[in-house]
Amino acid sequence: MAERLAKIFGTEEDKVNCPFYFKIGACRHGETCTRIHNKPPVSQTMVFPHLYDNPPAAVAFADGLNVPQENLVEAVNHFEDFYEEVFTELAKFGELEEVVVADNIGEHMIGNVYVKYQSEDQAQAAMQGLLGRYYAGKVIMAEFSPVTDFREAKCRQYNEGACDRGGYCNFMHPKHVTRDLKKQLFRAMYEDHPQYKEDRDKRKATEKKRSRSRSEDKRRVVGSDRDREREKERDRGGERRRSRSRSQDRKKHSKRSRSREHRRRDSRERRHDSRDRDRDRRGRDHRDRDRERDRRDNSRSRRD
Hints:
Among the domains are: 41-192, 2-Layer Sandwich (Alpha-Beta Plaits); 198-257.
């Protein structure tokens, strides 16, 4: 039972816990949801509900309406300025792994900003550091989020460019951030905070050692498996040689047996032939004596 509950936790089959809140950190039913929203006491990921104030052009475009090109360019510039400012400020509390701004226009997700730190301690420091602060005239509301893998939270159809629900989809539609802007912001973060780079290099070295250790363990396992296979092959080879030797011995024994049998048979045939020859010779001798006796008798009778 416990295994089944653990397996279905956070899925549609889970009738107790809300799967949308577990995957996305937001639910369209809010506090009226019939399922439980398990809010973690601490997490690497934080969510700032409705922190980004979307321009009307961005909302209209997300709703599938036609928007003039100049308005779209202005909305993109507005978003990139916001993204750079928030990224730079949040990087003061710890090393950032990802910053995602939802492009959804549903009431429970519009303007939500998700931030994932490298560790829970850094996220907790950000939570304490932002307590009571304002942005764009609004109090910053922050909470820990159960989202740890944004790939599970993102809408797959949106990534493919064909979501039927548009901006009201319940899965996350992340706003597009150019690769150049991301590289620029992460490079600036590591330049402004050298400790983050040192920690990252240490993690990479540790991970490399672990990977090398796993590779060596794998090679040892493969080597031991290969040795066992060789041993089995040697055993099979020895068994084949022994079987071949026994087969050859049987063949030799069979040849010897056949040879002895042939010799016995030949000897019997020779003996029989010798007996037949002796019998024939004795028969000829008897016939010769009988003829000689008949001849003498005939000669005596003619004289008389």
